[in-house]
Design goal:
Number of strands: 25
Order of helices and strands: HEEEEEEHHEEEHEEEEEEEEEEEEEEEEH
Largest sheet: 9 strands, antiparallel
Helix content: 10-25%
Radius of gyration: 48 Å
Length: 424
């Protein structure tokens, strides 16, 4: 027996060494003591007419009600130490949890103990000779309806489909992405709902690896205190990069009453069983994210007036030379959304009509938080017309006057010629 107990302990240790997380705490002790003086005898004839079988009401030295699992072995005759051997099938736990002492069946403690004990024996061996006069399914003893047998039937029938069920917690989010509140001060999630089964008490809801100032709130942003639906809120000032991921974890616990077999130091005595609560800790998490969209504003302006200049064809490339946007300027600044952090270059492909082509290449950087340092403005100068110099202008003027004089003189000579009949 001691070997089995040592083996049980080694298995638990092995689980720990292998790194497997055990989210359960059993209250079952490694051993307990049974003393004959703490037992008292029950007579089957008191509950089943003509039945000549005696039953011992058993408790351990802690006062815990226990049940015999080997009816043909001896009852302890002094003081006996019992050692934890194994976890029993859930059907035994069902009978003990729904029988005495957890529930009153007939109102008589001794009779309720006897009924519960018989139900356990029936599960162990329904063909045992002790049940020769029982018709469990029909609730009769020696052909007569019997309340005690009917209770046995209820217990064994319920045990047939019973199984240990771990408590569960589940988080469900309508969306994993947080959105800006109307006042622009926070990012807030959509509703996150807790689904639970078999848990008891309160739940713990905590952010994990979340930005500073992250809180659990109600829909209106007020502090969350209880309920199954909550929201997560993050201050805008805490977000310093375009993409932020974190989790919210809900934790809780539930109790399962499990049946355990205890074996005596001396094998001639009966093995015993009882139930002890096992607390299981459960949790679930949901991943949330905040996607901050970068906005880059690019202005194309007249160098002389500072006004927006339409008609220029512009291109922005990333640091690998890939074109990320190209457009023709209008009377409003151009906005590029969703650029990833990195360096970009703005160039002009075609100048507006009446303006010189800008040969400037403007490099700007989108920071991790989506911001851009400084304004991005590209200027264009109007085209200029060449005007002749002053010296050249004077030369041209003098030449024109000379030609004019020659022309006038020729006209006068010709007129006099005509007047004198062509004679000079």
């Amino acid at each position: 027996m001691k070997f089995k107990n040592i083996l049980f302990t080694l298995l638990v240790a092995l689980v720990a060494v292998l790194g497997v997380t055990v989210n359960a705490e059993s209250t079952a002790p490694g051993s307990y003591t049974v003393r004959f003086r703490d037992l008292h005898r029950l007579s089957g004839g008191d509950y089943f007419p003509g039945m000549n079988y005696h039953f011992y009401y058993k408790v351990n030295s802690d006062g815990k009600v226990i049940y015999c699992m080997q009816r043909k072995n001896d009852v302890v005759d002094g003081t006996e130490t019992y050692y934890l051997s194994e976890e029993l099938d859930a059907k035994y736990a069902y009978v003990m949890e729904n029988g005495y002492p957890n529930k009153s069946l007939t109102g008589n403690n001794d009779e309720d103990y006897y009924i519960t004990g018989l139900a356990i024996w029936y599960l162990i061996n329904p063909s045992d000779s002790i049940f020769a006069n029982f018709d469990i399914a029909n609730g009769t003893y020696r052909g007569q309806s019997n309340t005690a047998v009917q209770w046995i039937n209820k217990l064994v029938s319920g045990a047939a489909s019973y199984s240990y069920t771990d408590p569960t917690l589940k988080l469900s989010a309508e969306s994993n992405t947080l959105h800006l509140t109307e006042d622009g001060k926070y990012y807030r999630s959509d509703a996150i709902t807790i689904s639970a089964s078999g848990t008891t008490g309160y739940y713990s809801i905590k952010p994990s690896n979340a930005p500073k100032g992250t809180t659990i709130v109600n829909k209106d942003g007020s502090e969350f205190t209880k309920g199954l639906t909550f929201y997560v809120q993050v201050p805008v000032a805490s977000i310093n990069k375009l993409s932020t991921e974190f989790s919210v974890v809900v934790s809780g616990s539930g109790t399962i009453n499990k049946a355990y077999l205890y074996t005596p130091t001396h094998s001639r005595f009966q093995t015993t069983a009882t139930i002890y609560p096992e607390t299981k800790y459960v949790n679930d998490s949901v991943k949330l994210n905040i996607e901050k969209i970068s906005k880059v504003v690019i202005s194309k302006q007249d160098a002389t007036t500072g006004e927006e200049l339409p008609g220029a064809k512009l291109t922005v490339k990333d640091e690998n030379g890939n074109v990320v946007d190209s457009w023709t300027s209008t009377e409003e600044s151009h906005v590029i959304e969703g650029l990833k952090p990195g360096k970009y270059t703005l160039t002009e492909v075609l100048a507006p009509e009446g303006y010189e082509l800008s040969k400037e290449a403007i490099t700007f950087t989108v920071n991790e938080d989506g911001t851009v340092d400084g304004d991005i403005i590209m200027y264009n100068k109007p085209e200029t017309v060449e005007v002749p110099s002053t010296g050249t202008f004077k030369t041209i003027t003098t030449s024109l006057i000379g030609l004019l004089i020659i022309g006038l003189g020729s006209a006068l000579i010709y007129r006099n010629y005509k007047k004198n009949n062509g004679e000079i």
